[in-house]
Write a structure and sequence with these properties.
Elements lengths: L10 E2 L8 E6 L3 E2 L4 E4 L3 E7 L2 E6 L3 E4 H5 L17 E2 L1 E6 L3 E6 L4 E5 L2 E17 L2 H9 L4 E3 H23 L3 H6 L1 H16 L4 E12 L2 H16 L2 H17 L4 H34 L35
Parallel strand pairs: 1-4
Antiparallel strand pairs: 2-9, 2-13, 3-8, 4-7, 5-6, 5-9, 10-12, 11-12, 12-14
Length: 325
């Protein structure tokens, strides 16, 4: 049996199929007389001999290689199978589907911002769609030297270009989150076009690019939220008091001696601050009381400052006619 085992017909098909692989290479096997080629839905098969593409087959089904495939191969169309002769060729199976790949900025992208020499860090995430566009270029650049190619490798390639493209298109539409959100479509279309120009060099085509959101890093978002709260409250003392109350409320729900001590300390500190605020208000009221009131339109002197005649509460002097209030 061992003597004739390598003479048996075989089946050429995509073995161990994975949905996240762009291609898979059937190789290092000799195709014998009576062998079959199986092409499933969503697959194309490319026959290669000595590193050269011999034929591309796109119809799904089961095919006899000797009678239905070899006659269409470029240089092997006259090949004759015999008992001791077989054809050693590679068959490249292409995944023809369109891949939807999630992406995110590996680290914040810094954009220009006033008073921030190092730039404002932002993050972004979304998805993009890619498929194999040019088989010959893809084989030359990728499939010719690899056993398979996964969407993770495509994502890594895309992300290596992403920071520069984000900075380029963000600088065209605005330098803050609101402008970025408002001009999302323009940024998406611009990045897709630029990515496609780069991916076409390796036989891939970027047919869609979407940004789900732009965001600041967490520490900057917290500061922005605090600034918004301060702006809404309007007074720093009140802001501090509200922050302390929030801290006491949050700690009170945790239980334990640590939270009790924290609540006591926070309560004492808040009491001191509120007492200080009351003292400041009392001092301010006292200072206002010590200020001598200036004459206003309703205060009338007892005697005319011009001639000394009693005014009797009148706003004009009865003697000289001077205005008194």
């Amino acid at each position: 049996m061992g003597l004739f085992s390598n003479q048996l017909a075989n089946v050429v098909e995509w073995e161990e199929y994975r949905d996240d692989i762009l291609f898979w290479k059937w190789s290092n096997k000799e195709i014998k007389k009576g062998s079959k080629l199986i092409i499933r839905q969503g697959q194309d098969a490319i026959f290669m001999f000595n590193g050269k593409v011999e034929g591309i087959f796109k119809d799904e089904g089961s095919f006899d290689i000797e009678t239905q495939i070899v006659p269409f191969l470029s240089t092997l169309k006259g090949f004759k199978f015999g008992f001791n002769s077989g054809m050693r060729a590679e068959v490249l199976f292409i995944n023809t589907k369109q891949f939807n790949i999630k992406w995110g900025t590996p680290k914040p992208v810094r954009i220009q911002a006033p008073n921030l020499p190092g730039g404002l860090p932002i993050r972004a995430n979304g998805t993009f769609d890619v498929k194999i566009g040019d088989y010959l270029v893809f084989i030359e650049k990728i499939a010719g030297v690899k056993k398979q190619y996964s969407i993770n490798e495509v994502r890594e390639l895309m992300q290596s270009m992403l920071s520069g493209l984000l900075i380029r298109w963000i600088s065209k539409v605005g330098q803050d989150i609101f402008n970025l959100q408002a001009n999302m479509i323009e940024i998406q279309n611009g990045i897709q076009s630029d990515l496609d120009m780069e991916f076409v060099k390796i036989g891939l085509s970027v047919v869609g690019f979407r940004i789900d959101e732009f965001s600041y890093p967490e520490n900057i978002t917290k500061r922005a939220d605090q600034a918004a709260e301060h702006s809404m409250i309007g007074d720093m003392n009140r802001f501090q008091q509200v922050s302390m109350v929030d801290a006491m409320t949050n700690n009170g729900g945790n239980g334990g001696r640590g939270s009790d001590m924290m609540s006591t300390m926070m309560g004492a500190q808040m009491g001191m601050m509120m007492g200080q605020q009351m003292m400041n208000n009392m001092n301010q009221n006292q200072a206002n009381a010590n200020v001598q009131p200036q004459q206003t339109g309703g205060a009338v002197p007892k005697f005319c400052p011009q001639c000394g005649t009693p005014t009797n509460g009148n706003k004009f002097c009865g003697n000289c006619g001077a205005k008194l209030g």
